[in-house]
């Protein structure tokens, strides 16, 4: 069941169920093929995201979890980008446009899940991240990792349908699952949903479990930037004018004092 689609529903998404993941890493291999990235045993053994690995399977005891871009409904990476190189599409994926990128790497700092990676080893580096196979979804196909998954641990399709599927799985096997759909509400909701037998570990969890989108929480500060910038410019200009004025006054007083002393002689 790699692809779920209902009628007229919302955007696309991915559901990952760690309780039935075998750790086979077929999702990693399929992702690498799709991006034309090298993939071998050494890369497979690395349980972290990198410029060569845009999704990573990590072992947690006898269970396995996947790391990939969560495709937030209101992505902090896109909010932080000064040139809109990252943007959330109406279809669900958060995509990256290399031609716009300045290489400022603000997105790396802004992402609460620490997902975007940078090609430090290349002379012309780019930001790299999962784009939820935006081109495949546009053509009506499942994402590459879901298509490759042999157990149905990863499925893709309409997010609303995936939420219902996640609820069915929990209701059907309540002893098998920790009763929480991760990504349903975290940071305003994400297009990637995760089911687990236990609470999501710290390496995937938003630090404070926030449900508000991060851009909302910083909007007041971002809105204040122009005011602070303009106000600061005016203040610095005033300080400069006062300083220069004082210097001119001192110079003029010194000149008058010198003339007075000369006249007295």
Give a brief rundown of this model.
The protein has helices at residues 26-35, 41-44, 76-80, 106-110, 134-138, 144-148, 159-172, 214-264, and strands spanning 3-4, 12-17, 56-60, 63-67, 86-88, 94-96, 117-118, 127-128, 154-158, 192-195. It is an alpha/beta fold and 265 residues long.
Task: State the helical fraction.
Answer: 25-40%
CATH architecture of the largest domain: 2-Layer Sandwich
CATH class of the largest domain: Alpha Beta
Q: Please tell me the overall pLDDT.
A: 84
User: CATH topology of the largest domain, what is it called?
Assistant: Alpha-Beta Plaits
Outline, from the CA principal axes?
elongated
Q: What's the SSE pattern?
A: EEHHEEHEEHEEHHEHEH
- Flag low-confidence runs: 5-9, 219-229
Query: What characterizes the major β-sheet?
Result: 4 strands, mixed
**Gyration radius from CA atoms, angstroms:** 27 Å
Strand content: 5-15%
> How many E strands?
10
| Overall tally of domains | 2
Provide structural commentary:
This protein is an alpha/beta fold. It folds into two domains: 210 residues, Alpha-Beta Plaits; 48 residues. It is 37% helix and 14% strand. The chain contains eight helices and ten strands. The strands form four sheets. The protein has a four-stranded mixed β-sheet with strand order 1-9-2-10. A two-stranded antiparallel sheet has the order 3-4. A two-stranded antiparallel ribbon has the order 5-6. About 6% of the residues have low confidence.
């Amino acid at each position: 069941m790699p692809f779920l689609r209902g009628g007229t529903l919302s955007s696309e998404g991915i559901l990952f169920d760690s309780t039935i993941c075998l750790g086979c890493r077929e999702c990693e291999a399929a992702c690498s093929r799709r991006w034309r990235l090298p993939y071998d045993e050494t890369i497979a053994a690395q349980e972290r995201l990198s410029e060569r690995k845009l999704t990573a399977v990590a072992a947690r005891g006898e269970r396995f979890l996947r790391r990939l871009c969560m495709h937030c409904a209101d992505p902090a990476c896109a909010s932080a980008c000064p040139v809109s190189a990252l943007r959330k599409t109406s279809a669900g994926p958060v995509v990256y446009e290399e031609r716009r990128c300045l290489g400022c790497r603000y997105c790396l700092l802004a992402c609460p899940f620490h997902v975007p990676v940078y090609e430090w080893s290349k002379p012309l580096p780019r930001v790299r991240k999962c784009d939820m196979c935006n081109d495949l979804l546009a053509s009506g196909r499942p994402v590459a990792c879901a298509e490759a998954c042999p157990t149905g641990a990863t499925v893709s399709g309409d997010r609303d349908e995936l939420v219902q599927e996640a609820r069915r799985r929990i209701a059907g096997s309540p002893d098998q699952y920790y009763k929480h759909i991760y990504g349903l509400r975290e940071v305003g909701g994400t297009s990637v949903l995760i089911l687990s037998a236990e609470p999501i570990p710290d390496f995937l969890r938003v630090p404070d479990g926030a449900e508000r989108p991060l851009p909302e929480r910083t909007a007041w500060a971002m809105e204040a930037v122009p005011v602070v910038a303009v106000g600061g410019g005016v203040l610095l200009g005033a300080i400069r004018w006062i300083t220069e004025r004082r210097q001119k006054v001192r110079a003029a007083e010194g000149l008058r004092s010198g003339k007075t002393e000369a006249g007295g002689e």
